Amino acid sequence: MNTLRRNIIIAALLLYGITGIQAQTTNNLEEIFVAYEIAGMNDVIAKKDIPYLKTSDTALNMDIYYPPKFDFKRNISAIIFITGIPDTSMVKLTGNQFRKYGQYTSWCKIVAASGMAAIVYETIDPKNNLISLIEYIKSEHTNLSINDNSIGAFVCSGNTPTGVSYILSSSSIFSCAVLYYGFFLSEDVENLAAIESMFKQMGFQKPPILPDSNNWKSDVPLLIVRSGQDNIPNLNQSMQNFLDKAIKQNLPITLINYSEGLHGFEIYNDNETTRQIIKNTLAFFNYYLKQ
Asked: What is the side-by-side order of every strand in the sheet holding 176-180?
């Protein structure tokens, strides 16, 4: 692998929260897990390859992880792990889809073992496919055993523009959202043109830009975790810019500043602070989803 291609892959993985960048093979990426374990993780029920959007050419699928011994006789809260990169691009870069990486399969098992459903999905058009996914879940919520009035979002890194642009929109169905080490893109973000150029060079779609802050949905509780040792250019500054506006708009925000946290801390910082933040994340979901 030449140096230029390797650097592009590493930048892409970091930007989209696939943080085990030391790995050079798909198998390694599938085996890099969140630094947290909870009882029942290995006993969750995983229903995979559920088509949520069918086109003339193909179908886009999602995987849903349910709690151990779940009887499917009731509807439960769910967490959607939002992706902002087309799987066509990710497969070219790494050989596999977002939903199959160990970072996300382990997160799904953690959420499911905590009593909620966890959803990961494939996409070719992140912004529009997220809307299609949500519409499918709403229409099939009984068959999926999901409470469509109790859905949370998990978003990290470069997935954040796609996630937040929907989460804060008037059409959002999310009851709450957790945002780890995210890029928050708005028209006044420093070096926005350079950031958009980087997306384009990597073969990704142009990231969504947040609308004017006066139009943000104001009743979605947000848990934002900042990684103090994040080395992605402009990322923490974009977060600060967002926080200033969000506080001015009096949005319901909980901020955790992980001063020693790296980008992808739940993978890289294998310590008690990381595990406590993950516990707080689960407690946040449980509280606002009325689990």
From this structure: 45-54, 59-66, 117-121, 76-81, 146-156, 176-180, 222-227, 253-258
User: Which of the 8 DSSP states describes residue 204?
Assistant: P
In angstroms, the CA 210 to CA 238 distance is 11
| Per-residue exposure over 46-66, b if at least 16 CB sit within 10 Å of its own CB, e if not | eeeebebbeeeeeebbbbbbb
pLDDT tier at 179, thresholds 50, 70, 90: very high
Domains of the chain: 3-288 (3.40.50.1820)
Q: Which of 59-68, 87-96, 152-161 has the lowest mean pLDDT?
A: 87-96
Q: Is-contact 128 157, C-beta < 8 A?
A: no
What integer best gives the mean pLDDT of the chain? 88
**Any residues with CB less than 8 A from the CB of 7 and at least 6 apart, and which?**
none
Cα→Cα distances 220→34, 154, 170, 278, Å: 26, 13, 11, 20
Strand partners, 179: 155, 224
- In this predicted structure, which of 80-89, 134-143, 263-272 has the lowest mean pLDDT? 80-89
The answer to whether the pTM exceeds 0.70 is yes
HSE value, Cβ hemisphere, 13 Å, CA-based, for 107: 30
Q: What pLDDT, on a 0 to 100 scale, did the predictor assign at position 194?
A: 79
In three-state secondary structure terms, 122 is coil
Highest-confidence segment of 5-19, 22-36, 260-274: 260-274
Length of the chain equals 291
The residues, any chain, with a CB within 8 Å of residue 211's CB and separated by 6 or more, are: 165, 168, 169
How far are the Cα atoms of 84, 128, 182, 233, 276 from residue 213, in angstroms, in the given order?
A: 21, 22, 17, 23, 31
> How confident is residue 12, by pLDDT bands cut at 50, 70 and 90?
low
Tokens of 214: 């006066």
What count of other Cβ atoms lies within 10 Å of the Cβ of residue 1? 8
